[in-house]
Write a structure and sequence with these properties.
Number of helices of chain A: 12
Largest interface: A-B, 34 and 30 residues
Distance between the termini of chain A: 37 Å
Structural class of chain A: alpha/beta
Strand content of chain A: 25-35%
Shape of chain A: elongated
Strand order of the largest sheet of chain A: 6-7-8-3-9-10
CATH class of the largest domain in chain A: Alpha Beta
Order of helices and strands of chain B: HHHHHHHHHH
Radius of gyration of chain A: 24 Å
Strand content of chain B: under 5%
Number of strands of chain A: 14
Oligomer: heterodimer
Structural class of chain B: mainly alpha
Largest sheet of chain A: 6 strands, mixed
Number of domains of chain A: 2
Helix content of chain A: 25-40%
Mean pLDDT of chain A: 87
Mean pLDDT of chain B: 90
Chain lengths: 331, 255
């Protein structure tokens, strides 16, 4: 059974199309990523699949239940971690979890057991009695992930789960997400605008832009399209023999020369730099400066949409974004 | 329409926990009515206000009015608190749970009613300590009924505003153009006979007029309308407001 089946899903806000005729499916147990800039329609897609927004047109099945006809069963089957924190900060961590579990009609004994379980999983057991307003951003995120798991959903939505967190906490949460997917077999749909996040976590990624999928594939295949890292070598003098030798190297996919700068496309550029420098020395050329450029979301995005994410974000800001209040979306 | 009692209980319990923890909020919410009572009461007590009857002290006339005012503000805010939940994202968390919207509305009304009633009763208690007298247990219970009806009416109104407004921008407008006029038109501070006819007509469409009149009838035995009329009008207002509030809330998108 597919965790998600989407057919021609569309959402329009006052003439502005946020999600434009999406069709895709996510097999059960997959960790699926929606990658794109702000305003690409990722959150709108998630909100529709989580029954919070009514689609303008199109159909979807979530955990096998029809989104339009069987909302309650969809709601019972999903867990969601929203982009913006959705905790009651005047309650303690445990109360937030307990209240959530009660909303799903879970009996007291099961509640006690599962809360202990999820608190353990996100390492918040000793912080459970503290008011959430005293939590750090990372702790809040972890608590929300724990909350999303209490009622044992079969499909989990994570909307920008690491937005605004420091690098260490981000790593931590990535590991939880992976572990979760592996241990419980829950299908996870994750949105992000961090390339490395999608890359590290997802088995498949959809690149989303202006409400549509620009590409959908495994992360490695998406990056393959770009051909890999670009290593730029600045030389002290032009060297024809070096150029010729470099072109013959089997792992170099593309060579470009721009004045004294040699740009080479390859996989795992950082491991090839020493070899390249040695090769230059053999040809009596000194490398003055080395620059390694890893393919980023920027590049992949540029490749598929013909625009950089920055340009895209500017466009989105000029456009009317009705789903957000005047106070801005993110806190 | 399925009412999920656990969900109602959870939402009620949440309000209780938040209420108990927000001590400064309780003090703040009590301070304004107490200041009104103290300064207006003391200021006008000597000179007397025409139309309230010779035997009645103005401060005693004022007590039910100020309790009504406190209920008006705390209840409307309780209904409007949906806006805060929307602002802080918690509303989404409630809306994705498999619980009927009706249960969510009832839970919120139950929580708001309890906190508003507690504050109203605290005011009454302070008034009793200061020398206000309630004739009998029956009149106390009757007053409690009116307090309940006022509360549900204005939570319903708050829910309507919260569902229509979407964010807190219009909050000041509602304070100045809805809540304060309702308070002044209700006869909380002076008998309605003192108002010119046109304005008096306006106060007859203000639910709080009947609520405070009923409270006055119950607590000090003075009222402009008969108590059954007050009860009927308030019951009608509260049913209409709660149903409208639930209807608007149900229809509003949760984001």
């Amino acid at each position: 059974m597919d965790a998600i089946q989407v057919e021609n899903l569309t959402k329009k806000f006052d003439g502005f199309t946020a999600v434009d005729d999406l069709t895709f499916s996510v097999p059960s147990g997959e960790l699926f990523g929606l990658l794109g800039p702000n305003g690409a329609g990722k959150t709108t897609t998630i909100n529709m699949l989580a029954t919070l927004l009514k689609p303008t047109s199109g159909r979807a099945r979530v955990a096998g239940y029809d989104l339009a006809k069987d909302r309650d069963n969809v709601r019972k089957s999903i867990g969601i971690v929203f982009q913006d924190p959705a905790l009651d900060v005047k309650l303690t961590g445990r109360e937030n979890l307990d209240f959530h579990a009660m909303m799903y009609n879970i009996d007291r004994e099961t509640r006690r057991r599962r809360i202990a379980e999820v608190l353990e999983l996100v390492e918040l057991t000793d912080k459970a009695k503290i008011l959430v307003e005293k939590y750090s951003g990372g702790m809040k995120r972890r608590l929300e992930i724990a909350r999303g798991l209490i009622h044992r959903p079969t499909v989990m939505f994570l909307d920008e789960p690491t937005l605004g967190l420091d690098a260490q906490t981000r790593r931590h949460i990535w590991d939880y997400i992976r572990k979760l997917n592996k241990d419980t077999g829950v299908s996870i749909i994750l949105t992000t605008h961090y390339m490395e996040e999608a890359d590290y976590l997802c088995s498949r990624i959809a690149i989303m832009d202006a409400g549509k999928f620009a590409a959908l594939d495994k992360p490695a295949r998406l990056k393959d399209v770009l051909g890999g890292d670009v290593v730029s070598l600045e030389l002290d003098a032009p060297s024809e023999p070096l150029m010729a030798q470099v072109q013959k190297l089997p792992w170099v996919k593309r060579v470009k020369q721009h004045g004294l700068i040699l740009s080479l496309t390859m996989e795992k550029g950082e491991r090839r730099i020493p070899e390249l420098i040695t090769l230059a020395q053999k040809n009596k050329v000194t490398v003055v400066c080395v620059n390694l450029h890893k393919p980023s979301l920027e590049d992949v995005f540029l490749h598929f949409t013909g625009k950089t994410i920055r340009e895209q974000d500017q466009d989105q800001n000029e456009r009317h974004r009705p789903a957000r209040g005047p106070h801005g979306g993110r806190r | 329409m399925i009412i999920n009692t656990t969900a109602v209980y959870v939402l009620w319990l949440r309000e209780m926990k938040r209420f108990i923890r927000a001590k400064s909020r309780i003090i703040g919410a009590l301070a304004m009515p107490l200041f009104f009572l103290a300064f207006l009461g003391l200021g006008f007590n000597r000179m007397g206000v025409p139309g309230i009857g010779r035997d009645l002290k103005y401060i005693h006339f004022l007590v039910p009015g100020i309790i009504g005012m406190s209920l008006l503000f705390t209840s409307t805010f309780a209904g409007l608190s949906v806006l805060w939940d929307r602002e802080f994202g918690f509303l989404k968390e409630i809306m994705v749970t498999p619980v009927s919207r009706v249960s969510i509305v009832i839970g919120r009304i139950a929580g708001g009613t309890t906190t508003a009633l507690i504050q109203g009763l605290m005011l009454l208690l302070i008034a009793l300590i200061a020398g206000f007298k309630i004739p009998s247990l029956a009149s106390f219970l009757l007053a409690l009924l009116f307090m309940l009806l006022i509360t549900t009416t204005f939570i319903g109104l708050g829910l309507i505003f919260a569902s229509v407004m979407k964010d807190m921008q219009g909050f000041g407008l509602i304070m100045n153009f809805v809540m304060f006029p309702m308070f002044f038109l209700s006869g909380a501070m002076y008998p309605l006979q003192n108002l010119p006819g046109v304005i008096r007509a306006l106060s007859y469409i203000d639910p709080l007029t009947f609520g405070i009149d009923g409270l006055r009838g119950a607590l000090i035995g003075v009222s402009a309308f008969s108590l059954p009329v007050d009860i009927l009008v308030m019951a009608a207002f509260s049913v209409v407001m709660v149903v409208l509030g639930a209807w608007f809330f149900e229809r509003s998108e949760s984001l």
